[in-house]
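User: structure tokens for this one?
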Amino acid sequence: MLWVGVLYALGGNLLNSAGIQLQRLTHMQNKDNVPYLKLPLWWLGLMCMAVGEGGIVMAYGEAPASIVAVLGSVSVISNTLMSWLFLKEKITYVIVIGILYAVSGTALVIFDAPVSNYPDEQVYNSIVSWKGLGLLLAIVITSAYIANPFELSIAISTQYARKSVICYCLVCSLIEGISVASSKTISIAITQAASGNPFMFTDGSVCWLTYVLIVAEIISNILQVKYLNSALIHFNAAVVVPVYYILFTLVSVVIGMVLFDETTFDPLVLKVVLFTAGVLLACGGVFLINKQQGESTDASGLAPEFNTPEIRSSLVFVNAVEIPSYPDPPAPSKTDHM
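Assistant:
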């Protein structure tokens, strides 16, 4: 059901934000520099984030991928508001406008997103198909071409990737696309098992896909964190977060349409226009919020009181919320090219 998925996504994103705030509060109160792994409040924050991510995974099984992706803006909004309410951080008129944009856009997407007439029981056939294989190959080849892990001369060079924020963010978004497809299938399998029909975990002809996708979910999340942090080594978080959010939203919409036939707009023209406007408003709101917050932070993208190695290593947060960042590396000297 659509509204069940929306509630899962809302709850998951709110819990993620609460977890971030608990961890930040832990560091602010840790005057004695006790290792944060020994602090119960830090672990409570981590548990909130884990449960929140579980809620988002379940949301993909109940709602279109485009809705769940755009609802990532809730994390940005709630994280900003919680920081203002509980950590006494400043909130400006630009941030308020960004929040209004994001809320309006999210509401439009919820009411006007395309739906799928594809039965849940057929999700196996959708993924194990020529279009599923083609989409996977497109993601893998494009990601490998941009990331260029083997330093091939025919692919994009590492030097160019470090100058363009889109490169790392696009790789991260494409990898997250695999996670979207995996999350949707895993969520449907769990929902059906809970209703007394665990065939996607027990039927030998299809259960292999469920377990392969569980592994794919884990691997894609690890790679996503790797490339997201690579982006943040070279670019400010205020730039990375909105670019990543926009690209991830677009990738999620495409995957939902291609892989799960989320293409039904009724009435067609009106809902296409409103859905597009909603996505643009949500993206614009996220951009304004992060741009304004970036102006009040240092080069690392974190406010000075949070700019420590421990916090940067613990603030890895995947669905477009506050993410760890590092200052830009020093520019090479002229002698390096001699």
